[in-house]
């Protein structure tokens, strides 16, 4: 625990004395007032435009509304899961290729990584949707969303894995060599298992990225949450409400995933420092 | 995953709802939770729609066997239709379990019945497509056909086939209700900010019929276009009448003004790979026109929002040059 | 090829719009994000909480959802901005959350002793931050902030969904007009690569310029920073 509390953020200010405490109290009250003011202003705007009408919000508890959005959520989760299942192992392979001593392989992989890290996924989705069909490359809409997700995510996760492999203590390699393991075996049996454990929190964050990227199903008319929301707006005309509800669902899931990643990360750091 | 993420929010909302003076709203509509529009179901089509679909013809086995496309659908047991389920007049979802309703939904269910038999209307898989994705979905076989207020144009005919036309629509203008007096045709759109869907017939209609429009915004879907119009980002929404009528029905704040100023014949989008589908669907369309089903369907759907009797049906196979 | 030569002005305008969206969004995000980070490490609890809530909302909401809410949701509650500024606002709000977390992460890498030393010679909260902690943290923040920049570049493409005619939107539109315009995608891809690789290169130059000469780094470490979260 001590390792975590002694970061620079904790020593930026002294434990306040009586005068300091009073000042902090005054500033706290002031900032609470300002924050409440901002929130009140926002709510007032909603109310003035009739968007707080409870009838426009409680409908989202109705079975048919929930089922409609639930269908989209299933699509989102399906696309995210499928992309992760393919992209993460692919990312690991790319990382190994990147670290390989075979220069052409390493260079080719580096190009793939830089390319897909540097261009927007939307462009890849449009390429699959609009440009490639003219050349006979025409895949179902689920894959029109998921293949670009895989391409982009494999590049990000490759860098994650590479950092993980690099982070494994060099001594581990040497020890493995000392007991007679070949470089390949030492990578496979000694370094990789540790690296994968190290990057687990980062991989969960990559899942958050994928979940966000799946909103581009909107473009290929794949029924994920954002697209279902759009259709729902057309039927109910409750635009703000629908998109707020949709966004809150995304935020809730991603918040949960981020918490899990942070908790894992904290546990690993505690274990590493606490011995 | 689904339940665990929904549950906290739901509990909080229920608590919030309990604290609010909701009684009146709930009592007024007699529904359990709020008076929001149903997600379809009461699409105005009512019994007339069901009757129209139920009165459709069923093809002879020989006719099906003669078409590889129809045989494939019959063997699969479902018709995969590309389109939308969010158009109030042409195709609207019914989440209470029933089939979508509307003119396009009716044509779809009639086609399914024609191929799959008496209970075929229930054997349709509705796959969402948008203006950007329709051609691709037909080409790659994601859908068997697209029936989605889909205007037949020379450009589109280069990449896919169209059966039909089955309905003669036209490009029209939608404005905010308070502007209905001042805008009645394309000549009133000079200098006005316009909105239309990307990849739609509206773009060309504006280019050819509106002199010096203001800003022409292209948005990816109908929802954004309506929002842009209602919120004053645009003064008029130019698209084919079928879509605009659906918007007006759902939302009285926007109205369709004047007469259509460009012809938009709607067709059934089919893959060029399915050569025999074209004749097969045209034969089907001719059959529902000849036996009066087409007129019944029109009356139960478009007839609800357009005054007057059903128009003369178009001639399937009569494509624009 | 004529799809390009006939549309040079449109393409140039698209490129300019992409650059403008990215730069404006990023610069505003740097400012807002730094202010948020200061709030997050400040001694005033409500400010810490508010900044935390901000970060949790804006790093977890998909950018597309955020842009659509800003462009089409805000007008329903009485605030209509031009599409371009909706894009800038969305990019700023989203990137600022990541800037904030990276700055905070950076502050945490400064050895505790330095802040303690600064405190002991009488520097206050802002003095310690400004003269001792932030300048040192800056070096470790460069690489993560470059990643936020790339995230902003990539994110700007989503503004095409709200009618901002940036390069992805232009590409998509022209592709529909000219059936076989794969070339168009290569042009757009090149624009993004130049922007993101250019940003990474400048970041590298900056990093070397402020690094002590003996601290040779072995290439950028681009693992996802768990504290900072994943930008998309």
Automatic annotation (TrEMBL), chain A:
Q: Where does the record say this protein resides?
A: Cell membrane
Identify the stretch annotated as signal peptide in this record: none
User: Which membrane topology term applies here?
Assistant: Multi-pass membrane protein
Instruction: Identify the keywords attached in UniProt to this record, alphabetized.
Output: Cell membrane, Membrane, Transmembrane, Transmembrane helix, Transport
**Record-annotated membrane-spanning stretches:** 24-43, 79-97, 118-136, 142-161, 198-220, 240-262
Q: Which residues form the ABC transmembrane type-1 domain?
A: 73-261
Similarity comment: Belongs to the binding-protein-dependent transport system permease family.
Q: Which PANTHER family match?
A: AMINO ACID ABC TRANSPORTER PERMEASE (PTHR30614:SF21), MEMBRANE COMPONENT OF AMINO ACID ABC TRANSPORTER (PTHR30614)
Name of the protein this chain belongs to: Amino acid ABC transporter permease
Task: Name its species.
Answer: Brachybacterium epidermidis
From TrEMBL, chain B:
Tell me the domain of life: Bacteria
- Residues of the Solute-binding protein family 3/N-terminal domain: 78-305
InterPro entries of this UniProt entry?
Bact_solute-bind_prot3 (IPR051455), Solute-binding_3/MltF_N (IPR001638)
**Pfam families (UniProt xref):** SBP_bac_3
Q: Where is the signal peptide?
A: 1-27
Alphabetical UniProt keywords: Signal, Transport
To which protein family does this belong?
A: Belongs to the bacterial solute-binding protein 3 family.
What is the designated name of this protein? Glutamate ABC transporter substrate-binding protein
Automatic annotation (TrEMBL), chain C:
Under InterPro entries, the record lists: AA_ABC_transptr_permease_3TM, ArtM/GltK/GlnP/TcyL/YhdX-like, MetI-like, MetI-like_sf
How would you describe this protein's topology in the membrane? Multi-pass membrane protein
List the Gene3D superfamilies hit by this protein, alphabetically: MetI-like
Q: Keyword Protease on this protein?
A: no
Question: The ABC transmembrane type-1 domain covers which part of the protein?
Answer: 15-195
Its subcellular locations are: Cell membrane
CDD domains cross-referenced by the UniProt entry? TM_PBP2
Query: Quick one: signal sequence residues?
Result: none
| Superkingdom of source | Bacteria
Q: Which UniProt keywords apply?
A: Amino-acid transport, Cell membrane, Membrane, Transmembrane, Transmembrane helix, Transport
Q: Which residues cross the membrane?
A: 15-39, 51-74, 80-100, 145-165, 177-202
**Belongs to which family?**
Belongs to the binding-protein-dependent transport system permease family. HisMQ subfamily.
Please name the PANTHER family in this protein's record: GLUTAMINE TRANSPORT SYSTEM PERMEASE PROTEIN GLNP, MEMBRANE COMPONENT OF AMINO ACID ABC TRANSPORTER
Q: Which named protein is this? A: Amino acid ABC transporter permease
**Organism in which the protein naturally occurs:** Brachybacterium epidermidis
């Amino acid at each position: 625990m001590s390792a975590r509390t002694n970061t620079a953020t904790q020593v930026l200010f002294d434990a306040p004395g009586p005068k300091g405490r009073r000042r902090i109290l005054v500033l706290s009250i002031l900032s609470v007032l300002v924050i409440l003011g901002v929130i009140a202003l926002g709510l007032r705007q909603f109310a003035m435009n009739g968007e707080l009408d409870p009838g426009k919000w409680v409908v989202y508890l109705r079975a048919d509304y929930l089922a409609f959005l639930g269908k989209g959520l299933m699509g989102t989760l399906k696309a995210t899961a499928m992309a992760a299942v393919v992209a993460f192992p692919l990312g690991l392979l790319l990382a190994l290729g990147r670290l390989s001593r075979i220069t052409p392989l390493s260079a080719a992989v580096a190009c793939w990584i830089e390319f897909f890290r540097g261009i927007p996924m939307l462009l890849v989705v449009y390429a699959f949707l609009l440009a490639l069909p003219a050349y006979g490359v025409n895949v179902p809409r689920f894959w029109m969303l998921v293949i670009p997700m895989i391409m982009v995510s494999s590049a990000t996760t490759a860098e994650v894995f590479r950092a993980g492999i690099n982070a494994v203590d060099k001594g581990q390699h040497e020890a493995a060599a000392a007991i007679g393991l070949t470089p390949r075996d030492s990578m496979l049996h000694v370094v990789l298992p540790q690296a994968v454990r190290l990057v687990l929190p980062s991989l969960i964050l990559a899942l958050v990225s994928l979940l966000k990227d799946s909103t581009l199903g909107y473009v290929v008319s794949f029924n994920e949450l954002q697209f279902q929301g759009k259709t729902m707006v057309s039927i109910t005309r409750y635009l703000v409400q629908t998109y707020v509800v949709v966004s809150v669902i995304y935020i809730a899931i991603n918040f949960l995933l981020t918490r899990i990643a942070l908790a894992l990360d904290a546990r690993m750091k505690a274990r590493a420092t606490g011995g | 995953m689904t339940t665990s993420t929904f549950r906290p929010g739901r509990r909080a909302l229920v608590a919030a709802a309990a604290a609010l003076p909701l009684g009146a709203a709930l009592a007024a509509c007699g529904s359990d939770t709020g008076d929001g529009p149903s997600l379809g179901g009461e699409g105005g089509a009512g019994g007339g729609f069901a009757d129209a679909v139920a009165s459709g013809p069923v093809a002879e086995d020989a006719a099906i066997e003669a078409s590889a496309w129809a045989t494939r659908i019959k063997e699969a047991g479902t018709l995969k239709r590309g389109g939308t389920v969010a158009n109030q007049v042409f195709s609207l979802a019914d989440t209470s379990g029933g089939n979508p309703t509307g003119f396009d939904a009716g044509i779809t269910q009639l086609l399914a019945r024609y191929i799959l038999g008496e209970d075929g209307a229930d054997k349709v898989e509705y796959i969402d497509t948008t203006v950007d994705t329709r051609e691709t979905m037909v080409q790659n076989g994601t859908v068997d056909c697209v029936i989605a207020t889909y205007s037949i144009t020379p450009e589109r005919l280069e990449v896919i086939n169209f059966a039909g036309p089955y309905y003669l629509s036209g490009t029209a203008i939608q404005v905010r209700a308070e502007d209905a007096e001042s805008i009645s045709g394309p000549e009133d759109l000079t200098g006005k900010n316009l909105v239309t869907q990307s990849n739609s017939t509206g773009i060309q209609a504006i280019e050819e019929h509106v002199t010096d429009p203001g800003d022409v915004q292209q948005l990816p879907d109908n929802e954004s276009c309506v929002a842009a119009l209602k919120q004053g980002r645009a003064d008029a929404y130019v698209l084919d009448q079928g879509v605009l009528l659906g918007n007006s029905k759902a939302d009285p704040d926007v109205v369709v003004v004047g007469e259509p100023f460009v012809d938009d014949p709607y067709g059934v989008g089919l893959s060029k790979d399915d050569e025999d589908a074209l004749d097969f669907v045209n034969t089907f369309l001719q059959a529902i026109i000849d036996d009066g089903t087409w007129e019944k369907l029109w009356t139960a759907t478009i007839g609800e929002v357009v005054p007057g009797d059903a128009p003369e049906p178009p001639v399937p196979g009569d494509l624009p040059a | 090829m004529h799809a390009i030569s006939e549309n040079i002005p449109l393409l140039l305008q698209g490129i300019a719009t992409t650059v403008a969206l990215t730069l404006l969004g990023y610069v505003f995000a740097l400012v807002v994000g730094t202010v948020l980070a200061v709030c997050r490490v400040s001694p005033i609890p409500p400010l810490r909480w508010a900044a935390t809530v901000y970060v949790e909302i804006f790093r977890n909401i998909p950018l597309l959802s955020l842009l659509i809410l800003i462009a089409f949701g805000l007008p329903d509650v009485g605030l209509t901005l031009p599409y371009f500024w909706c894009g800038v606002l969305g990019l700023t709000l989203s990137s600022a959350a990541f800037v904030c977390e990276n700055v905070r992460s950076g502050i945490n890498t400064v050895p505790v002793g330095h802040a303690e030393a600064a405190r002991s010679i009488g520097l206050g909260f802002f003095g310690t931050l400004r003269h001792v902690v932030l300048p040192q943290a800056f070096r470790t923040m460069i690489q993560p902030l470059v990643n936020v920049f790339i995230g902003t570049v990539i994110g700007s493409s989503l503004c095409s969904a709200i009618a901002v005619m940036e390069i992805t939107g232009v590409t998509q539109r022209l592709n529909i007009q000219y059936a076989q315009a794969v070339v168009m995608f290569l042009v757009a891809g090149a624009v993004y690569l130049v922007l993101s690789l250019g940003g990474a290169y400048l970041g590298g130059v900056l990093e070397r310029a402020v690094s002590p000469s003996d601290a040779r780094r072995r290439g950028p470490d681009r693992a996802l920073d768990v504290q900072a979260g994943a930008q998309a």
